[in-house]
Amino acid sequence: MAATGKSFAQRWGVHIAVLLIFIVWTVPTLGILVSSLRDKDQIAVSGWWTALTTSSQTGQGRTDAADAQVEQGGRFVISGNLLEDGTALTITAFGTRIQEPTAHEAGTVAELEDGVTLQVNEDGSYVHSSPVAFEGRRGERVFFEASTPPRFTTENYETVLFSEGIGRSFINSLTVTIPATIIPILIAAFAAYALAWMRFPGRAILIAVVIGLLVVPLQMSLIPLLKLYNGVGAFFGVPAKTYLGIWLAHTGFGLPFAIYLLRSYIAGLPREIMESARIDGASDFEIFVKIVLPLSFPVLASFAIFQFLWVWNDLLVAMVFLGSGSSQLVLTGKLNALLGSRGGDWEILTTSAFVTIIVPLIVFFSLQRYFVRGLLAGSVKGG
Predict the structure, then answer these.
(1) Of 7, 10, 246, 368, which one has the greatest count of Cβ atoms within 10 A?
(2) In whole angstroms, how far apart are CA 88 and each of 85, 123, 155?
(3) What angle do CA 256, 258, 260 make, to 5 degrees?
(4) What is the largest CA-CA distance in the chain?
């Protein structure tokens, strides 16, 4: 009974932990998505969790000047509208002092000084009346509180994709990420098979070197690699700051982990299959292509997720090997530039952020069924 109770508690503990992880991951993502679809004025005054409710905001306007007055029934009247044409705001209260923007309800007639009255309606129309002629070049300043219904729009995405240059950066990121994910997998798969099933001098040393490279800090090797690449490129007449350079850089940084992960999985494949294939006369290349690769698809997909996410979200390597020109910026670089120049435009930032994460989400959910199987691959004891 004690064992049963402990097992029940463990299951509930796992369920609660998974639920917490789901909430922590989903809520911010949902907030970014909702904010990216909201009107920019509503984002500025209320949080994304209020997106389905009517929001309130304060504003100010000014009545027309004295030259717009007309005489009606012995009083001088100025009429007009405080709101711009096409606005969805509904005025709920108004006032003539900034300290009391809600002193009077919309639609009521407010008594001001010397018999002057002011009436502001819900649609923003107003009537400013006085027993004597108005004077001065400027009208009365009016403060108001207005409510606006929930409004969702795709204008933010149109602005980001076509006006802010994100579209070009999106293409740049794809151009960097896809080859930088495929190339390490191709190289690491061959290397992992050789280190797992082929016997040759120095094999153990190579495995030790690969494991040692896992702990080399990325930042420490960036500049030496850049100098080496520029030197070799100058010798062969290849210009610096090209896609080839960043592909090679990401390949070099991703290979140690790729080889380690793939070797751990390939070494755990059944020895009987390999021996039977060799007895039937298959070469190492045929064994690799026809047996090892199909059986290793889960771990290949798992590494592809890791590599794709890392390269897609990378900023440092892209800035060093590709540059920061407008035609070279990757998506993370463009978003970083927006954070500096458009720090107050939350509708631009949230939309850019969601555009940045949508592709990794598609890749992850497309390959997630292989993710856990690939992560657990190294726990299988191999050669």
Answers:
(1) 246
(2) 9, 9, 16
(3) 70
(4) 114
Dig out the tokens for 169 from the structure. Answer: 């950066």
Q: How far from chain centre, in Å, is Cα 93?
A: 39
Nearest Cα residue to 292 out of 275, 272, 269? 269
CA distances from 228 to 43, 216, 223, 224, 225 (A): 48, 17, 9, 6, 5
> Within 10 Å of residue 217's Cβ, how many Cβ atoms?
7
How far is 309 from 319, CA to CA, in rounded Å?
Answer: 17
Residue whose entry in the numeric block shows the structure tokens 């026809």: 290
Closest to 353 (Cα-Cα) out of 32, 109, 24, 124? 32
Look at the alpha carbons of 300, 303, 305, 307 in this order and tell me if their dihedral is positive or negative. Answer: negative
Predicted TM-score (pTM) of this structure: 0.70
> pLDDT tens digits, residue range 69-119?
898 888 999 999 988 876 778 899 999 888 888 899 999 999 988 889 999
Number of H helices, E strands in the chain: 14, 9
Neighbours of 39 (CB within 10 A): 18
- Strands, sheet with 70-72, edge to edge from the N-terminal-most edge strand: 70-72, 75-81, 125-130, 117-120, 109-111
Name the token pair of 171.
């293409």
Q: Which helix (H) or strand (E) holds 117?
A: strand 117-120
Query: In Å, what is the CA distance from 9 to each residue of 12, 17, 18, 21, 47?
Result: 5, 12, 14, 18, 37
Per DSSP, the three-state class of 106 is coil
The tens digit of pLDDT for each residue in 132-191 reads 998 877 888 999 998 888 888 888 888 777 766 777 888 889 999 999 999 999 999 999
Report pLDDT for 381: 44
What does the pLDDT average to over 117-137?
90
Q: What is the DSSP string of 46-76?
A: S-GGGTTS-EEEEEEEE---GGG-EEETTEE
Structure tokens at 18: 């998974």
Q: How do residues 228-246 score in pLDDT, each as one tens digit? A: 888 888 887 777 788 888 9
